Amino acid sequence: MKDIKRVAVFTSGGDAPGMNAAIRAVVRNALHNDLHIFGIQRGYQGMIDGQIRRLETSDVSNIIHRGGTVLKTARCPEFLTPEGRKKAYENLLYNDIDALVAIGGNGTLGGALQFAQEYPDIAIIGLPGTIDNDLYGTDFSIGFDTAVNTAMQAVDRIRDTADSHNRLFFVEVMGRNSGYIALHTGIAGGAGGVIIPEEDMDLEELVKLLKRGTARRKLFSIVIVAEESRMGNVFSLAEQVSKRVEEYDDVRVTVIGHLQRGGSPTAFDRVLASVLGFHAIEALLAGQTNVMVGIRNNQVHHTPLEEAISKPKKPGKELLRMAHILAQ
Ligand code: ATP
């Protein structure tokens, strides 16, 4: 592996709070080690379009507390094609880039792996930047904690209304194919039920759970539902349940949606992003490539990109069992 001198950082896929803190840490540690550091605008799209510019320490001043990403992000269908990736490679060569730090979710790291297999002369480190927390090899991804806190605050507000009106609320939170946000929001928000794609809960079980509450005169409840569940979407679920459980005065649905993506990152996400961004540069300097830098049991952990994107990561069964018991 050649010496690393010129590194480019980018964010890609869905934005996640804390991405800016990660960019800042990558830039500052790179400069600390006398590397030249570049920012690529709009993820793979900017790589293809040549939107690559030199970054200095002042470019990342005053961003640690901001949500979104100052480098912008994009979904880029052209990068799925060999021609698109070739254009991206040529732009990197033009700028003499010898290493990349890719911050994003499963798709972004999958793209990084594909690129690495075709152009192994460019070293790549991935950082888990997604509110979904669905990447294997890290206990937490950048943005997850903030998204859970935002959803929890929404649930706290809904609780006031639910209680005052004796209502059953179904609250849909984000997380395509991943129940992490729903499960953690459910536990933190004291929900009466949590429905996630990783679990085979059926309508009968949900009805039983709610009836357990109404039997002891609990006349409001909040059920947290992940974006995709095996029982259909949140609206059809609410309709089916309202026909079976008649004790509530009303049944309502709230979809929190994109509110969960934005906002200032929590202290946890800022620290996590700073640690991972810092260690992305450490990993490159140590000669590492094609790994995702994550955190496991409070220790920095390197996982091959291939494993990070392909191995399943599911919420622990024990946590789910606990959530159901505490929901009663
Ligand atoms: P989030 O978890 O927030 O959805 P993500 O990183 O998974 O973020 P995607 O839209 O799935 O977001 O992927 C981001 C981009 O990565 C895609 O638009 C595409 O350019 C690139 N990408 C995804 N999969 C591949 C692949 N198999 N090969 C090449 N590029 C890919």
Topology (elements, then pairings):
Layout: E1 6-11, H1 19-32, E2 36-40, H2 43-49, E3 52-54, H3 82-94, E4 99-104, H4 106-118, E5 123-128, H5 144-165, E6 167-173, H6 180-188, E7 193-195, H7 203-215, E8 221-226, H8 234-244, E9 250-255, H9 267-285, E10 291-296, E11 299-304, H10 305-310, H11 317-326
Parallel strand pairs: 1-2, 1-4, 4-5, 5-10, 6-8, 6-9, 7-8
Antiparallel strand pairs: 2-3, 10-11
Helix pairs in contact: 1-9, 2-3, 5-6
Bound molecules: adenosine-5'-triphosphate.
Order of helices and strands: EHEHEHEHEHEHEHEHEHEEHH
CATH architecture descriptor text of the largest domain: 3-Layer(aba) Sandwich
Record the strand order, biggest sheet: 3-2-1-4-5-10-11
Number of self-contained structural domains:
2
Distance between the termini: 57 Å
Low-confidence stretches: none
Q: What is the strand tally?
A: 11
**If you consult CATH, what is the topology of the largest domain?**
Rossmann fold
Residue fraction in strands? 15-25%
Q: Provide the residue-averaged pLDDT.
A: 94
Helix content: 40-55%
Number of helices: 11
Q: Structural class of the helices, strands and pairings?
A: alpha/beta
- What's the CATH class of the largest domain, please? Alpha Beta
